[in-house]
Amino acid sequence: MSSTSLAPLKKTPLNAKHRASGARMVEFGGWDMPVEYSGITDEHLAVRTRAGLFDVSHMGQIELAGPAALAAVQWMTSNDASRLAHGQIQYSALMAENGGFIDDVLVYRQTDDHFLLVVNAGNIVKDHEWIVAQAKPHGDVSVVNSSSRYALLALQGPAAQDILQQLTAIDLGAIKYYWFANGEVASVRAIVSRTGYTGEDGFEIFVPPAQAEKVWDAVLQAGKSVDARPCGLGARDTLRLEAAMRLYGNDMDENTTVLEAGLGWIVGWKKNDFLGSARLREQKERGLTRKLVTFEIRERAIARHGYPVTRDGAPVGVVTSGTQTPFLKKSIGMAMVPQDLTAVGTTLDIDIRGRRVQAEVVPEPFYKRPKPAKS
Amino acid sequence: MYPNDLKYTKEHEWVRMQGGDAAVGITDFAQRQLGDIVFVELPAVGRTVKQGEVFGTVESVKAVSELFSPVSGEVVAVNPDLASHPESINAKPHDAWMIRLRPSTPAEADGLLTAAAYSDLVK
User: Fold this and answer.
1) Is there a single domain that holds both residue A141 and residue A172?
2) What is the extent of the structural domain holding A138?
3) Can you tell me the ipTM of this complex?
4) Is residue A272 part of a domain?
5) Phi (first) and psi of residue A58, to 5 degrees
6) Which residues pair with B4 in a beta bridge?
């Protein structure tokens, strides 16, 4: 239970707020972050049924601007950013040469020549260096690590829109999933995007760090009538896993290709060659040798990150994520397994601390939110 | 917070020596560290365990932790309520006993931490 890192932990602009509210804090990616407020189950259920508010200010922002910005983004990310309109967002991979992930990112298009990438907390420095190096040959594009200019709040849950609408003149109903708008929230300059990492409807709100506490308090106050809860990284992890969203460093990394991660839908196959595209095309043509699958365990056991998937007793794969989910009340997870074990219905043997437990490959996601009622 | 009639281990188990048997559970500190508990794996009645030996595991949403026996003895009972209500460990950690042992060396309990010493440890 001790941290091995000697560097002081980084703090978000909301750190004092978390500590004063009695949140349990943990080290995550070099940051001192709240893992839970009222408890993972309570927070998880709040997001699935009402709303929850997360501090995700540890996430990084890297911006590319200039006439060559689009060409640079097209070169280093997997998805086709030319298809983005102003105010639109896409999920993408920041590519490595070998077809793997330097990171998984959200690409926001502000204007023709200005893109904002939201990157994982633990990868900010690595990503920035990589993006600078990869952008250079494209000429006129500036790359700025603007992470310290933004605090990021995620308000997630079916009541998110009703809560946030009390605080902004932006017509939130007009923001479609994976689109964003610039405006004000609680009289604070903000970017508001209809995105999240929970499988639920919701918004992510970028605000200046100095105003983060003001917005945090205003959102919780506006959410009081529906009992919106402040939430920590624990619930964020169980929520994202129920939605089968990948976690960088757990489910994939630099040595996992985009296709092996089961994310072929974020590859812009029709665009020009891009970093790592040769490997992806080759894998697409010849087929994969391994792939990430989602599984369910029907007995009382939880498979956790790093547990071996075995065949005839020998390790052939590995569990990348696993938990008992508070909403579905099932033992679920993801595993990287050989191609012949990837079909839905396949039985996997998982070595859980020396005990062989059977899991079944199931379709993803585990949880899909009900379609919102037409208004 | 930590009842005086219990003895405690550095691994955050408690034992209540009472009428010739020893009830064992985990402390409030332990349940708070684990968060929401979803399963407990406990030994079969009749098994003997040594002091410090692993007698089971407790799993929360976010972590798994081994359970170490505070004293040596034979398992004479396993709490039947925990299979269906593991969350009672979170709610009442010092009442939610996991196993009862017939201690083979009751004096072992004397070497464990008092409530005051344990409170200091987890402060």
Assistant:
1) no
2) 60-145
3) 0.81
4) no
5) -70, -20
6) none
